[in-house]
Description:
Layout: H1 2-5, H2 9-93, H3 97-113
Amino acid sequence: MQNIQNWSNEMWLIAGIGLFVGFILAYLFISLTKGSVKKQTETAKELTQAKQELESQKQLLEKHFAESADLFKTLAQDYQKIYRHLAKSSEQLLPDANNKSLFLQSFMNSEKSTAITPENPPKDYKEGSSGLLKN
Length: 135
């Protein structure tokens, strides 16, 4: 304790300046890191919010496609019912033997005609080549 009492004015001045500089540096450090921490927390909140929005969007898409699949299934079943009805009606209303099998054959032929083979390209293609390499 006697050492502190024996300090000269210059030593007290140096200690005071050091303390003052320390406070200024601490204040600057805190203010700089405080903004950084604030930005980090804001970024973390935004990230969490984006993840929640993404998850809700994903759930909406899954629900949409599940409902669409169910609707297409129902639609396909309805088309099958219509086809059976027309086939049955054609048998009853058109007793001619040629016409009975005609309705069913057209269904069978339509499946074959939609098959994509090298000889039978998709119907959206033009006849022959139409590009730059056309001879």
